Amino acid sequence: MTALTQDRNTPQAMGDARVGLLGANQTIHAGSILMRNASGHLIAGVTATGAFGVGRAEERMTSTTAGVTNQRYSPGIFRFANSAAGDLIATADIGAACYIVDDQTVAKTSATATRSPAGIVDNVDAIGVWVRFDEALTRAMLS
């Protein structure tokens, strides 16, 4: 592509609303953790490797074939359930990465490299863990 010779109307993504394509055989529940797999598709939060948390699902969707179904999601800071025992996230973990256990639970560790990162621990309270979902930041932090 050549350099501009006149003004250009460059589109801008406004707000937190995002859309991505679902992976194969997914059932996504509104309000759940979404992750991006190695193929670039969105999948429900599960214990798996090779993926990164992207945010909260904004609607319930199902898919059978990868790359066909659009899924609305939002990056940002959301509260999810805290893991238990040795993987319980504490106030001392604020600012550290946390890892996806399932579509509503995060943990302190990767369980010996069996879990993908969700995002960054923003806060911890009696109800759960506030996770900052910013895929680019999480990828940069862990590379």
Please describe what this structure looks like.
With about 140 residues, the protein is mainly beta. The protein folds into two domains: about 20-75, no CATH class; about 75-140, no CATH class. It has one helix and twelve strands. The chain has one helix at about 135-140, and strands spanning about 20, 25-30, 35, 40-45, 50-55, 60-65, 70-75, 75-80, 95-100, 105, 115-125, 130-135. A hairpin with a 5-residue loop joins strand 3 and strand 4 (about 40-45). The protein is globular.
Layout of helices and strands, plus pairs?
Layout: E1 18-21, E2 26-28, E3 33-36, E4 42-44, E5 52-57, E6 61-63, E7 70-74, E8 76-82, E9 97-102, E10 105-107, E11 117-124, E12 129-133, H1 135-141
Parallel strand pairs: 8-10
Antiparallel strand pairs: 1-7, 2-6, 3-4, 3-5, 5-7, 8-12, 9-10, 9-11, 11-12
List keywords for this structure.
five-stranded antiparallel sheet, 143 residues, 2 domains, globular, 5% helix, mainly beta, five-stranded mixed barrel, single chain, 40% strand
